[in-house]
Amino acid sequence: MGDPLFWHRLQFGFTAAYHYLYPQLTMGLALLIVVFKTLGRSPGREACRDAARFWIRVFGINFAVGVVTGIPMEFQFGTNWARFSQATGGVIGQTLAMEGMFAFFLESSFLGLLVWGEKRLGPRRHDLAAWALFLGSWLSGYFIIATNAFMQHPVGYALAPDGTYQLASFWTYLLNPWAIAQYAHNMLGAVVTGSFCVAAVGAYWTLKGLHPEHARWNLRVGVAAGLLASLLVAFPTGDLEGKLVARHQPATLAAMEGRFQGGPYAALTVLGQPDVARQRVENPVAVPGLLSFIAYGSFSSPVRGLNDFPRDQWPTNIELLYYGFRLMVGLGTLFVGIMGLAALFLWKGRLERVRPLLWVLMLAFPLPFAANTAGWMVAELGRQPWLVYGLMRTQEGTSHLVHPGQTVFTFLGFAGIYLALGFLAAFMIAREIARGPVSSPEGH
After folding, report:
1. Which helix (H) or strand (E) is 287 found in, with range?
2. First-residue to last-residue Cα distance in the chain
3. Distance of CA 419 to CAs 52, 190, 288, 313, 369, Å?
4. Integer Cα distance of 348 and 345 in angstroms
5. Distance between CA 354 and CA 362 in Å, rounded?
């Protein structure tokens, strides 16, 4: 069956990547539902409240699938990654428990009220429930990212006599600077996903000539939020994350850029193919000095190359890390262009008549999912070969009791179940889009 570590990483990587397809949409929609609710408080904007009801139903479908696909990840901490859980459970167990007890239950409870309780709650309390859903969703995101940030940049811990890591300062751990920057970047990425989906539905209804007022508001909110979030993902949040990587994970930065030799006036490689064996980038298209400026604020600042580090500290898959980073940045740049052009036509009052651009908006909704997945791949591949950066190597965190054959078997099972769940979720969301917005509260 080969290397057990490979199968453990592949299984967890697959389940994590697939699972995150759903929370990124729900977290983005949580904010946009509040926006629709707020706009709907003004007279003559009942279409905004209808849009909120529509997206609450879509939120519910995604939330359900997200819960189901996320449960296996929790078990994998105790099966595939038992030594990691034993060593770091005294630290990361805090935020994982908080995510489950506070954020998850808050989110799920108020989702039920939003879906079935509008008549009983009334408009004002239903709006408050939407705010609570938003708070629970975004709290959940922070607790998970604080956990991941400890693995990227461990702070607030102490080494116990038994060799395990225990929490030394709760607030240092919770307010990890890496967590704050990563959280802002991640949540704005989720808003980009939600905005593209909202704009895509608006574009579809417009092209089909359905629900014109609702389609108009979906386009307005989707395009405006999408443009703002796409810009903020790049700067300042993306820039801040890049500077943290340069400061705390310099080998990761070198691998992301395919940079083998260090020195000042480091060029930013836009295009090219990394050749690890020859330690160079083939056919490079680069901007001289720009990497030094972005990473350290000066064109003359030296940037270390991979050869400045021991070979056993290099990221284990430089090519995938390099291309994943360019996919993320390239798509992010495309998002600014698409939403910027759409915002221009929206400002001129012509967007609904520019059918080619409507087609672009309708078909572009999968791209943020790809960009966010690429971003998480960059973060996790860049951390390798460390499971907790500088403290625990990845091979030190696995469980020796799980045979690779068992991992392969369960991996295939997860793949089949997730495929079925994906088709079911897609069918249910397509049915909601065909059904269209609901003009009156549901529930009792």
Report:
1. strand 280-287
2. 55
3. 29, 22, 45, 36, 16
4. 5
5. 12
C-alpha 27: how far from chain center: 9
Identify the three-state secondary structure at position 169.
coil
Per the CB < 8 A criterion, the answer to whether 404 and 7 are in contact is yes
Q: How far apart are CA 369 and CA 48, in angstroms?
A: 25
Cα distances from 191 to residues 19, 28, 51, 273, 392, in angstroms, run 17, 4, 17, 32, 33
pLDDT at 444: 40
Tell me whether strands 165-167 and 268-275 are parallel, antiparallel or unpaired: unpaired
245 three-class SS: helix
**Under 8 Å between Cβ of 59 and 26:** yes
Confidence class for position 443, pLDDT limits 50, 70, 90: very low
State how far the Cα of 232 lies from the Cα of 251, in Å rounded to an integer.
26
Which structure tokens are listed for 33?
């539902």
In a domain, 48, yes or no: yes
What pLDDT digit, counting tens, does each position of 213-255 carry? Answer: 999 999 999 999 999 999 999 999 999 999 999 999 999 999 9
Cβ proximity of 163 and 88 under 8 Å? no
Report yes or no on 7 lying in a domain: no
Is there a domain that residue 440 lies in?
A: no
Question: Under 8 Å CB-to-CB from 232, ≥6 apart: which residues?
Answer: 188
Is the per-residue pLDDT at 1 higher than 70? Answer: no
pTM of the model: 0.96
| Mean pLDDT of the region 336-356 | 97
Q: Residue 62 has which token pair? A: 């995604």
Could you tell me which residues come within 8 angstroms of residue 16 by beta carbon, excluding any fewer than 6 positions away?
73, 376
Q: Can you name the residues that pair with 165 across neighbouring β-strands?
A: 159
E-state strands within 198-279: 268-275
Closest CA to 339 of 208, 247, 203: 203
Number of domains in the chain: 1
Contact 202, 216 (CB under 8 A): yes
Average pLDDT value over all residues in the chain: 94
Residue 156: which region, alpha, beta or left (left: phi > 0; alpha: psi -120 to 50)?
left
Comparing 441 with 339, which gets the higher pLDDT?
Answer: 339
How buried is residue 18: exposed, middle or buried, by Cβ count under 10 Å (0-12/13-18/19+)?
buried
Residue 257 belongs to a domain: no
The pLDDT tens digits for 83-113 are: 999 999 999 999 998 888 777 788 888 998 8
Q: How far is CA 31 from CA 198, 219, 221, 235, in A?
A: 12, 16, 11, 20
In which domain, by residue range, is 49 found?
A: 15-246+313-435
Q: Cis ω on the peptide bond leading into residue 236 (within 30° of 0)?
A: yes
Q: What is the model's pLDDT at position 439?
A: 72
